[in-house]
Structures are given as structure tokens and as C-alpha cells.
Design the sequence.
């Protein structure tokens, strides 16, 4: 006898874990007080991220880049700690943004450190490296402006 | 280094959830602390990331558990010192070797940053020191201060 296998209907397919937590179907879901608390924390951090993003996009600066980076990292750390209680958003985009802000920050810090450490007679020889670091920073900032708009946070 | 997953499924309330998170993140830091003695850049980088995770978690908890405030500020200082070390390492990789005196100066800065990190870690475990509240909260870290905190 032939058994014809049909692809499982969307409704029959197992839901991803985060979705199961969300709808209260997972057996191992943390208790309601924890979920409520975790959502409060996530809302707070998401608001801080959105604020930092708005400020950065309005007028990028080193200070605003630092704020954007810090708020994005806090958000990622929160999802790592409380992933059982709050569904994570599109994490890949967030990770990518953090990497890019790291590149810009590293280039900026290295340039400042190099400036401070350079001997007057070695300044000329370091010109190329300083230029390269400046370029790296500019490129990263440009990519951040593009990428930061793509980070979507789930409504909680 | 990837963050360990924390099981909160059978946590009894918010305080217990906070404690579980702090225990896992503090244990991650303690496991990586021998890097301070060895001074290897990649291990110190992992330690910095682990300190950052623990610090962010503690900062979230301080409104409910103010005793963790000192530990989070000490972790911020430690993270800064390790960050300076990391920045110097990156710069040393980029600087042409022909810039002798600049290379030398950055090396001195790097070594200073590492000494600072070692001292911050060691002092954190002193009696009534910044980690006292964290140790009491998690039950971890007792005996680490003796023997210079693995440094």
C-alpha cells in the first residue's frame, strides 16, 4: 500500500521555541512574574536603543555612536540572559550593527591613541596609517547609518 | 565566547531568576580569570566580554538588589582596563615596526592597563570590598581573593 506523504500544513508544523513561549504553549516557560519583569526590562532597553538610534541618525558623532553601541549591546545582553522570557527580535541585524559600531569605534580609538603616542619625528611615517584609520572609520559610519535603520525590534 | 544559556523555567520568582543569571555570568567570569595571570590577548578579550555580560546583568538588578551596585562599578573599571589593553594590542598589530619609540610607548601603556586590571580584580575580593555583595548574592567567589585572585 502506498502512503503518500504530504507536506505538513502550516498549522501542523511545530512552532519555534520563542513563539511557543510567546503564546504560553511551552512546558518550560518561566512563571508570569518573571515574564512580566523581563518584558519591562526589554521595553526599557528597546526604548533606550530607539532613542540612541534617533539621535545618531539626526547627527552622527562619536558620543552618539558610543551611545548607540552601548544601547545595542545592552539589548543583546538582555536577550541572552532572558531569552526564555522575552522573544528575541531579528538578532542577526542587531549583531551586525554591533560589529559595525565596533569597527568604527576601534578605528577612532586607535587613531586617537596613535596621535597621542607618536613621536614628533615619527609623525610623518605614520601618516599613511592615520589616513587608513580615518577611512576605515568613515566607511563603518556610512554602513552603520544604513544598517541601523534595518534593526526591527518586536513589540512587547 | 558565546554566552551560556540560562534555564529560568523552574525559577521561583524574580529574585531567584536574578540569582540564577548572576551565578551563571559570574561563573563565566571566574572561569576566565586565569587570563589575567597569563596575559594572552585573546583570553583577556574573552574575559572582558564576560565582565561586560555580568556587569549589564547586575546593572539591571540593582534597582531590586542595591548591594550589587559596587560590583557593577568595579566591573566597569575592570572592563575599561581590559578595553585599554585590547586597544593597545590592536594598535600594536597595525603600527609599522619601524616606528620604534611609538611601539615602545604603546607597549608600556598596554602593560600598565594589564597591571591595572590585575590590581582591580585582586582588590575586589577584599573584606567589605566591591565584590562582597555579589559573592553573598551568588554564593560564588569565596577564597578567590586569597592567592591574588588567580593573578
Sequence:
Amino acid at each position: 500500500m502506498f502512503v503518500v506523504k504530504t507536506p505538513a500544513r502550516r498549522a501542523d508544523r511545530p512552532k519555534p521555541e520563542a513563539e511557543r513561549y510567546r503564546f504560553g504553549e511551552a512546558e518550560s516557560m518561566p512563571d508570569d512574574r518573571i515574564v512580566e519583569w523581563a518584558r519591562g526590562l526589554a521595553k526599557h532597553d528597546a526604548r533606550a536603543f530607539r532613542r540612541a538610534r534617533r539621535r545618531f541618525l539626526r547627527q552622527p558623532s562619536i558620543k552618539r555612536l558610543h551611545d548607540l553601541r552601548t544601547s545595542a549591546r545592552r539589548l543583546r545582553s538582555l536577550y541572552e540572559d532572558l531569552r526564555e522570557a522575552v522573544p528575541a527580535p531579528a538578532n542577526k541585524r542587531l549583531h551586525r550593527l554591533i560589529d559595525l559600531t565596533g569597527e568604527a569605534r576601534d578605528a577612532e580609538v586607535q587613531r586617537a591613541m596613535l596621535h597621542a603616542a607618536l613621536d614628533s619625528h615619527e609623525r610623518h611615517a605614520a601618516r599613511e596609517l592615520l589616513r587608513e584609520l580615518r577611512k576605515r572609520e568613515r566607511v563603518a559610519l556610512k554602513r552603520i547609518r544604513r544598517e541601523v535603520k534595518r534593526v526591527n525590534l518586536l513589540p512587547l | 565566547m558565546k554566552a551560556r544559556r540560562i534555564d529560568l523555567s523552574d525559577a521561583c520568582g524574580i529574585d531567584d531568576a536574578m540569582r540564577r543569571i548572576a551565578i551563571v555570568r559570574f561563573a563565566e567570569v571566574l572561569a576566565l580569570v586565569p587570563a589575567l595571570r597569563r596575559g594572552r590577548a585573546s583570553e583577556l578579550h574573552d574575559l572582558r566580554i564576560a565582565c561586560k555580560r555580568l556587569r549589564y546583568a547586575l546593572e539591571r538588578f540593582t534597582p531590586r538588589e542595591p548591594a550589587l551596585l559596587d560590583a557593577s562599578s568595579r566591573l566597569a573599571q575592570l572592563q575599561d582596563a581590559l578595553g585599554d589593553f585590547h586597544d593597545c594590542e590592536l594598535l600594536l598589530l597595525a603600527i609599522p615596526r619601524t616606528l620604534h619609540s611609538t611601539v615602545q610607548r604603546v607597549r608600556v601603556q598596554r602593560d600598565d592597563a594589564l597591571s591595572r586590571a590585575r590590581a582591580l580584580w585582586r582588590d575586589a575580593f577584599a573584606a567589605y570590598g566591591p565584590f562582597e555583595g555579589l559573592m553573598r548574592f551568588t554564593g560564588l567567589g569565596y577564597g578567590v581573593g586569597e592567592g591574588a585572585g588567580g593573578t
Summary: Residues 13-146 of chain B form one domain. The two ends of chain B are 21 Å apart (CA to CA).
